[in-house]
Amino acid sequence: MTVTPGRSIQSFVLTLSLAISAACVAHAGSISTNDPPVAALADRRTGAIAFEALTPKSSRDLVLRKTTEKSVIAGVLTLPESAGAAGAPQAKVPAMVVVHGSSGVLKNGWAWAKRLNDMGIATFVIDNFTGRGVKETATDQSRLLPTADAAGALAALRLLATHPQIDPKRIGVIGFSRGGSAAINTALEPIRLAVVDGDLRFAAHVALYPGCAVPYLSAHLDGSPILMLLGGKDDYTPASNCLAYADELRARGASVRVVVYPDANHGFDSDAPPHFRPQPTTLHDCHGEIDLDAGAFTVEAGGQTSSGAAAEAALKQCTERGVTVGGDPEAREKAPQEVADFLKPIFELAR
């Protein structure tokens, strides 16, 4: 496994073992392994795991199950101490798939994994980018279709459900920014059923500062609850769009809880102070939607609504650069408790 250049899997695993009991580490980078991809975890393995995930070229192809291209991506699976040693007769534990944002796997993802491990929840931190030849999408979101992130998370769900120490009915997903959008998108049945057969689904969806300017919509949802944590001062993925999206989801029967931290910017769970980044792209003055049921794409900009190719052109015209990102003390303190309070009843954990 290579998380930073020149670092062997043996040295990385040793570092993890020495640093913390759970297999997560605070760093930015990618996740990869030289091991072949696996389709099941009957051997109870943990650590770096490669697996296959669909890489759609269009959301329509995915929901119509026409996507055949697969990529080998990887993740790091960590069981909580409560799971005991491999082979030990222990009750199955819940798990969360952890999905990164536009800059790839960052320190905050590993920090959340550690918090979840401490709650008695297994974590699978996945890297949707490296195996697909992508370094980042912050400066160009078209480098990878958003549904590819959801497909990666759902492939991770399918894989985790085969692990003897994980309860397949208590697997959730948490994501940040673009990964937060993926956490919500996996609740849409056309996307779920494109990757996962039968009734297997995420038990909970947690999205921190997701992008909601051009959301996916469907009348068919998986029925699992959704938590959105938003920044009131977020100029990257504005809270107003997500509040409107939450209302749309509720109208379709979803259980959605939304918390807005008034003074928080994008990336409010970061340790870094708020700072301006000139290159990332954002949408301030237009919004739209992608109706997965009808296959329709519409954009509202400048008081006009366009669809199809015209909508794509309108979206390009209203794309801007320059955002503020960084931590907020209040949100950074309160968000972990909010997530814990949301997950404990769903996962039947001691309060």
Helix and strand run: HEHEEHEHEHHEEEHEEEEEHEH
The helix/strand class is alpha/beta
Strand order, largest beta sheet? 1-2-4-3-5-6-8-9
Q: For the residues shown, what is the average pLDDT?
A: 90
Descriptive labels:
351 residues, alpha/beta, Rossmann fold, eight-stranded mixed sheet, 26% strand, globular
Describe this structure in words.
- The chain is α/β, with parallel strands linked by helices and 351 residues long.
- It has a single domain, classed as Alpha/Beta hydrolase fold, catalytic domain (Rossmann fold, 3-Layer(aba) Sandwich), CATH 3.40.50.1820.
- Helix content is 28%, strand content 26%.
- The strands form three sheets. It has an eight-stranded mixed beta sheet with strand order 1-2-4-3-5-6-8-9, sandwiched between helices. The chain has a four-stranded mixed beta sheet with strand order 7-11-12-13, sandwiched between helices. A two-stranded antiparallel ribbon has the order 10-14.
- A hairpin with a 4-residue loop joins strand 11 and strand 12 (296-301).
- Helix 4 crosses helix 5 (178-185) and helix 4 crosses helix 6.
- The longest helix has 19 residues, at 329-347.
- It is globular.
- The two termini are 36 Å apart.
How do you describe this structure in short?
The protein is of the alpha/beta class and 351 residues long. The protein contains nine helices and 14 strands.
Outline the secondary-structure elements:
Elements lengths: L8 H11 L27 E8 L4 H5 L6 E9 L14 E7 L7 H12 L3 E6 L18 H15 L5 E11 L1 H8 L3 H7 L9 E4 L7 E2 L8 E6 L7 H13 L4 E6 L13 E9 L2 E6 L4 E6 L2 E4 H10 L1 E7 L3 H19 L4
Parallel strand pairs: 3-4, 3-5, 5-6, 6-8, 7-11, 8-9
Antiparallel strand pairs: 1-2, 2-4, 10-14, 11-12, 12-13
Helix pairs in contact: 4-5, 4-6
